[in-house]
Amino acid sequence: MGQQEPISRYAYIVVALFAILQSVIILYSTDYTVRQESGLSGQFIYLPLLLAVFVPSAISYLITNAKSAIFYLNILIIILLTIWISLWHARHSESSTDASPFIAFTTLIVLLFFLLPWMQMRQLEKTWKIDYACLMGFYIKNTLLGIFASAIGGLLVTLILLANFLFKIVNLSSLSQLLSNDLTLWAGFTLGFNIGLIFLRSTFELQFGKFISYIARFFLIILHIIAIVFVIGFIFSYFTGMNATGLGSAAMLWFLILNIILINLVYGDGTQPYQFSAWLNPFVLFSVLLLNFFSLLSIYGILIRVNQYSWSIERLYAFTIALFLAIIIFAYSIAVLRKRTHWIFSLGTINKFGLLGLIGTILVINSPIADFKRITLNSILSGIDNGKIKVDSMLAYDLDELGPNGQQALKKLKSNPEYKKLLEHSSYGDEPKKSLEDVLVLAKNSAELPKSWWDMEDKEHEYYCISLYHSYNCLGFMVDANQDGQDDVVMCYASEDSGSFDCIIWQEKHDTWSIVDRQANHYQSVEERDQAWQKLLDGQFNLKPKEWRQIIPQ
Fold first, then answer.
1. Same domain, 193 and 217
2. Lowest mean pLDDT among 98-102, 253-257, 355-359, 413-417
3. Within a domain: 383
4. What's the number of domains the chain is made of?
5. What's the average model confidence in pLDDT over 393-411?
6. Which residues form the DUF7057 domain (predicted)?
7. Is 504 helix (H, G, I), strand (E, B) or coil?
8. Fewer Cβ within 10 Å of end Cβ, the chain: N or C?
């Protein structure tokens, strides 16, 4: 792993030119005004940004010789994949405000992470007969070089900002403005990242294989111990009738992913087999078999949620990952049962087919073959018919997020008067909304608050007392706060976990109540605040002149 790659000097020129182009496109693609004035539809608005991020970066990872036909084929494949995935995820975006590149961006990162080493191997060996050991080396190397290249790009930006600051001190304003320009900063990062990446590929040999393997052995044993303790606890809970606190499918998926990563870091492709100690090896083999329990439990947990509610896009992604991991773990288990300690010789073959299957799966779920939005919509509509799904405003939001088909289904549901009422009813409406008069406590010895104050049109202050999202205590009283002979209304509110409370003072002029002051009182602890609050409730307070005068512009 980590061998130097022969890279021609012309490759540096190509990478530098694409890095500058990358910085320009990223700058203008992330500018809201430019996006609005570009006239591009929501489907195409983020396509230039995604192409600018991934294509030049892929060139920096792949280029060795600018005359290589395989290199150009690989770049063409990446361009086509970027266009396809970008358009697929933006296919329902009618305007630039509806579009979001997040899912497409994440999908492309995952897809290219798994795809790039295959392309690099194809360029290196000029054959489709892939050496799994080299393939694993490229996965590790690409990750490390990406981190180092990002650090180089970030360091270059830091130096540019430092130079900008220093030049500003000595009145080199024109040079300082040039360096502080967004285009300069983006160009600094992209040049640092891409040139740094290709330089690291050609210069350094990263011999981390054995070091990483040693660390992975330790953590793999820890994970296996956790697995066995968990299974013992699960069996104990089952037979004693104790309820588990939850299924935790997400945690189990991460647990399986960590196990698979560490297994591969420890054993590699199996050509240079490592064996744990004679007393420890059976424990490791048993733990590998035990991983099937976790994969089945994660799938079961997801299906339980689906049965309770319906499929959602998140559950479909989770189920796809769980099913893929279950197949890999099952293949490992078959190898362990058939070959015992020699099972690691099968790792390379299993993982190669697994990686190809993973790449294929990513492509399938980003195509009409497995349209997660369509599957989710059909499942939701079925759940409504079966009474599994509650019809409320949250359902309306979920359907609206599923694109034109979901919006059409929502429109159809609203044609039913009963459904229409429920869809417009807030989920939080199950708890009856209280009025301010229900929750505001009148302080002792205070006159009743005037009806005209309760009835005033501006109700913004009521939020603090009747919000369903935050818990506030509220009190009110009448007092002549400015000593003009006329009582004013004071309303105070305090959050339960805050060491302070705030008060608002209204004064009546010409039959209209207006806010004349806002006051904040801060204390060292909630307990001190509660004592002061109780004194207000008991009507125990004084009116003191403020220390600081009001500043009024003339």
1. no
2. 98-102
3. no
4. 3
5. 82
6. 434-553
7. strand
8. C
**114 and 236: one domain?**
no
Domain of 198? Answer: 9-203
**Same domain (yes/no): 188, 281:** no
Note whether 293 and 233 are same-domain residues.
Answer: yes
Least Cα distance to 521 among 513, 511, 512, 531 occurs for: 531
Final residue belonging to a domain, choices 338, 370, 402 = 370
Reported as type and span, the H/E element at residue 72 is helix 69-89
- What does each C-alpha distance from 214 to 135, 188, 210, 306, 524 come to in angstroms? 20, 37, 6, 41, 51
Place of tokens 């266009």: 83
Say yes or no: 248 and 343 in one domain. Answer: yes
Those residues whose C-beta lies under 8 Å from the C-beta of residue 465, and which sit 6 or more positions away, are 436, 439, 440, 472, 474, 491, 493
What is each CA distance from 414 to 174, 392, 393, 394, 396, in whole angstroms? 61, 11, 11, 14, 10
Question: Residues near 546 by Cβ (< 8 Å), separated by ≥ 6?
Answer: none
Give the orientation angle of helix 182-203 with respect to helix 132-169, to 10 degrees. Answer: 140
Residue 301's alpha-carbon distances to 293, 377, 528, in angstroms, are 12, 21, 47
Q: What one-character-per-residue DSSP string does 104-147 give? A: HHHHHHHHHHHHHHHHHHHHHHSSS---HHHHHHHHHHHHHHHH
Class of residue 162 by CB neighbours under 10 A (exposed 0-12, middle 13-18, buried 19+): exposed
Q: How far apart are CA 273 and CA 475, in angstroms?
A: 74
| Residue 380: half-sphere exposure toward Cβ, Cα within 13 Å | 28
Domain assignment present for residue 418? The answer is no
Residue 19 clears pLDDT 90, i.e. is over it: yes
| Position 36 confidence tier, pLDDT thresholds 50, 70, 90 | confident
Q: 185 and 143, same structural domain?
A: yes
Closest alpha carbon to 438 in 414, 454, 415, 425: 454
Give the predicted TM-score (pTM) of the model. 0.68
Domain stop point among 142, 175, 203? 203
With respect to residue 297, please indicate whether it lies within any of the assigned structural domains: yes
